[in-house]
Amino acid sequence: MPDPVRVRFPPSPTGLLHVGSARTALYNWLYARHAGGVFVLRFEDTDRVRSTDEAMEQALRVLEWLGITWDEGPHRQTERYRQYSEIAARLVEEGKAYRCYCTQQELDAEREQRQRAQQPLLYSGRCRRLSDEQRAAFEAEGRLPAVRLVMDPAGETVIEDLVRGTVRWENALQGDFIVLRSDGSPTYQFANPLDDIESRISHVIRGEDLLSSTPRQLAVYRALGAREPLFAHLPMILGPDKKRLSKRHGAVSVEEFRDRAYLAETMRNYLSLIGWSFDDKTTVMTTTELIERFTLERVNTSPGVFDFAKLEWLNGEHLRRLTPERFCEELLQHLQRSGSPLAANSDRVREVARIVQEKLRELSQFDA
Predict the structure, then answer these.
(1) What is this structure's pTM?
(2) 242, 247, 310, 359: the active-site residue
(3) 284 is a domain residue
């Protein structure tokens, strides 16, 4: 009997939840629901300077509006600082990690030297070979050590990515990396896999911008003797000009589409189609159909394009599928949220709604 599917969505609460993150959340949720698995929500808030409660609250609002429900969480990484430190100390005791006393100036000088010599910009590992006397001398100076994981430079790290196929990295190009900073805070490369191990995550479904993190994160799994997950790295989302989607293309925060009165089912349908398809002809799908049909095998390797015109068309299709009662309620809610004076005459709105339902693509067009 196969192990149960357990996936997670771990946003960093440092800004608004944009459409790329929303699509990642949606794919994880669809995969979990399709397989009868578990969806875990976790906030990676170890960046204490940039992480805010407001960003977490906004992310929760977006997920709730989209109907992306979680089975466990929301967890916060800052609640697990003690566990990260304890595991790092254990790895040091086992010889799988070591304390690094190098200052930033020393690291910068080493990097410049390697750059001039046209060598890979990796840490030399010199603190791995310190004697007890040298460590004691550094501590007497008041140096606070970071903790680095020992990386075996031999061979390759190989995964069978469920989207991209076989992916390989040379271990010699990874270097001993920091898992715990000198202030005691964990790095992303350490906290992320530790949390996945704790939550027994079976599938890591995330954007391809995090693909390069994989060999170092797998090194954490192997240092702890933990079972490794399967990986699926999703293609990027581009704007109509085929450049990475950003604010210059228009709305990128999901709440902007909600405020423009797009339906949640439209957004679920549209986001699912940016990088995935059921076949070569089906576009309009209910959420039930998406759950039934979603598989990682049909996720594309090439980037998806966010087409604002197609989203508007798709919203019109979903508006026409609503019952007259639901359409009228959605319309009235939009008018109330937008502060339109038309909201005060609900009887008139209900009367006109029957006529305009076949014409509108956005509810905001009603009082434009």
Answers:
(1) 0.93
(2) 247
(3) yes
